[in-house]
Design brief:
The protein is mostly beta strands and 387 residues long. It is built from 2 helices and 25 strands. The strands form 6 sheets. A 5-stranded antiparallel beta sheet has the order 10-11-12-13-14, with no helix packed on it. The chain has a 4-stranded antiparallel beta sheet with strand order 1-25-24-23, with no helix packed on it. Strands 2-3-4-5 form a 4-stranded antiparallel beta sheet, with no helix packed on it. A hairpin with a 4-residue loop joins β20 and β21. It starts with 11 loop residues before the first helix and ends with a strand.
């Protein structure tokens, strides 16, 4: 989604109201608040524009590079663009690379609009990972007119550390890679968890007669991809397993697609999934090893501060950080208790209603844990939240 920028953002009253609402969900005692990650975050800084020389905009994925190789430096922040210069969704072909030590952004990759290995073309979404070997895996959810009416099933594109296309992965389990990836990376092998949200989704004009909304298709999945990474060669898929399915997915004129977006892997092997249409966080047990689908998983928490949850990551304290699609908040969730323990307004653009509505997408914790990176779609910028 793309909005007109609004530089006037009076946030004080909004933040105060939110703090009171969040406090009502907290157990009594200052010690508890002291352990909350968002309670330590006080500064929000604009780092760079995400608009590329070809005019691509609408930043989606946010990923931190773990290694220095090729164009990449360890700690660099990579951001995809989902829209082209005409603001058509599913047509963005570029990735920017922001280097914190230099305070500068550069173009990491510019892909062709049409890629023979990728059905439907290229539209770079929220699914992206940078491996320790330097290979970048990025999802394409393409369209030719900016809506799901012309979308293709897309693919997962493998880029070299220099941003060049090495190969692309397709198959019956890959249909519009949509959510931010969770990754287990062992160097010579890796495991990716990716949500797919394009199965049988029609155009946004096909409406449910009962609700008047675009029809919901309960076929979105989470796929586990196990990779082999030979020295000096691109990764290959050695096994793929659907570990969750049946999530809601539907077309949307503003957001292109709505489906499961956030994926975050806990140390115990539980994969947490933000079920956007269900307005909940789900848990998939034994995600690293299971051989069958867990369906739509166990509900960890739902409703309350969640307003169509999107991207998600694990904070240093073990809690989940979840961006909202329907306002400019990030929500902290204790996955063990299921409590939504705190929320913070990180985009208060009042050109939207509620403030920040439709502005937030990717999120990634900084390597030292002192804050997190996110993007603001309304002004096409990479942001840093810090202490």
């Amino acid at each position: 989604m793309m909005h007109v920028a609004n530089a006037n953002r009076p946030a004080g009253r909004i933040v105060a109201v939110l703090a009171a609402a969040a406090a009502a969900l907290l157990p009594a005692g200052g010690a508890v608040a002291a352990n909350l990650y968002l309670a330590s975050i006080h500064r929000h800084t604009t780092l760079a524009s995400t608009v590329t020389p070809n005019g691509d905009l609408n930043p989606y994925a946010v990923v931190v590079a773990p290694v220095s190789i090729g164009k990449l430096h360890a700690g660099d922040v990579l951001v995809t663009n989902f829209n082209n210069v005409s603001n058509l969704q599913g047509t963005g072909t570029t990735i920017i690379d922001y280097t914190p030590s230099a305070g500068k952004a550069a173009l990491f990759a510019s892909l062709p609009q049409r890629l023979s290995q990728c059905p439907g073309g290229v539209g770079l979404g929220t699914a992206m990972a940078v491996l320790k070997s330097g290979w970048v895996i990025v999802g394409s959810t393409p369209s030719s007119d900016g809506t799901t009416k012309t979308k293709g099933p897309g693919c997962l594109i493998v880029l070299s550390p220099d941003g060049q296309v090495a190969t692309a992965w397709t198959g019956s389990d890959i249909n519009d890679p949509w959510g931010n990836m969770a990754v287990i990376d062992n160097g010579a092998s890796a495991t990716l968890f990716v949500s797919m949200a394009g199965f049988d989704v029609p155009g946004p004009d096909v409406l449910d007669p009962k609700t008047g909304d675009p029809v919901t298709v309960n076929k979105a999945t989470v796929v586990r991809l196990e990779l082999s990474i030979p020295p000096g060669k691109p990764p290959t898929i050695t096994r793929e397993t659907v570990i969750a399915d049946g999530f809601g997915q539907r077309a949307d004129k503003d957001a292109f697609l709505i489906g499961p977006t956030g994926l975050a892997l806990a140390p115990d092997g539980t994969l947490y999934v933000s079920d956007a249409l269900g307005n909940r966080i789900a848990a998939v047990a034994d995600a690293k090893t299971r051989t069958t689908s867990a369906g739509t998983g166990r509900t960890v928490t739902a409703g309350q501060l969640l307003k169509r949850p999107l991207a998600m990551c694990v904070a240093p304290n073990g809690n989940l950080l979840v961006t909202n699609a329907k306002n400019g908040q990030v929500v902290e969730v204790d996955p063990n208790s299921g409590k939504q323990v705190l929320a913070q307004w990180i985009d208060t653009d009042q050109a939207q209603s509620p403030p920040g509505n439709g502005d937030l997408f990717g999120i990634a914790v900084k390597p030292d844990g002192s804050g997190f990176y996110y993007v603001e779609d309304d002004v096409n910028t990479l942001m840093e939240a810090s202490r």
